[in-house]
Amino acid sequence: MLDSIRELEECIGYIDWKQDFYDEVLSGARPYVSNLIPAENLMDS
Fold it and tell me: Which residues lie closer than 8 Å to 34 by C-beta, 6 or more apart?
């Protein structure tokens, strides 16, 4: 049971980190760099 709780806490921590990351990207505080989408495609959108 404690292992399940620990795993869920780690998942929540990751989700919180990811939300903070994208909040920073959207506010302009952090540049967004994707190694999946070529930069020229980002400029087209």
Answer: 42
